[in-house]
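User: Just a sanity check before I run the rest of the batch. Below are the structure tokens for the first item. I only need the designed sequence back.
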């Protein structure tokens, strides 16, 4: 299994933090890592729902499954919780980084991270390579410098996003949103 980390970056103004919503769904493009022409675009993965499996299936529980042409087994994608990421990173990197914060550990984006790529989600895959993320709206919770939270479908980074924290008289915006996947 290969772990892919989803990194995001954006220019943040008037924002304290940007984090994943607890019910976030991910719209991603995936490809067959051994074939240039087999791709599936805008696949939606819901981390709260596992793919139903036949009785006696050998694959572990997963959130997305696809059977590529000429493939004997299905390829799968599993969203990892923060605890699962922590455990997987310890296994991959060994005990040499004990006591240090792992730069691949998923976390929220803070004001200090403005315009820097930050690991925000992780997926474990077998026979699938995610290569693009498409914001649909509702994936993120934005907290203003004054503590006002913005969430739901109104928070959509498919284009530049802006709002106003009236309680604290602060204009908030997320511009130049970008994302990338990296395997570790």
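Assistant: Here's the designed sequence for the first item:
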């Amino acid at each position: 299994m290969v772990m892919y980390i989803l990194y995001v970056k954006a220019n943040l103004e008037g924002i304290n933090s940007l984090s994943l919503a607890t019910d976030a769904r991910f719209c991603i493009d995936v490809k067959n890592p051994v074939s240039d022409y087999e791709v599936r675009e805008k696949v939606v993965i819901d981390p709260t729902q596992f793919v139903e499996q036949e009785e006696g299936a050998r694959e572990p529980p997963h959130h997305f499954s696809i059977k590529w042409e000429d493939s004997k087994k299905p390829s799968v994608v599993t969203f990892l919780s923060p605890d699962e990421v922590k455990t997987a990173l310890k296994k991959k990197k060994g005990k040499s980084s004990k006591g240090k914060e792992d730069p691949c550990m998923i976390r929220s984006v803070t004001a200090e991270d403005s315009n820097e790529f930050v690991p925000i989600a992780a997926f474990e895959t077998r026979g699938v390579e995610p290569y693009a993320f498409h914001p649909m709206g509702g994936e993120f919770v934005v907290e203003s410098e004054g503590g006002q939270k913005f969430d739901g479908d109104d928070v959509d980074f498919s284009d530049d996003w802006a709002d106003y924290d009236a309680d604290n008289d602060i204009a908030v915006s997320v511009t130049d949103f970008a994302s990338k996947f990296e395997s570790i």
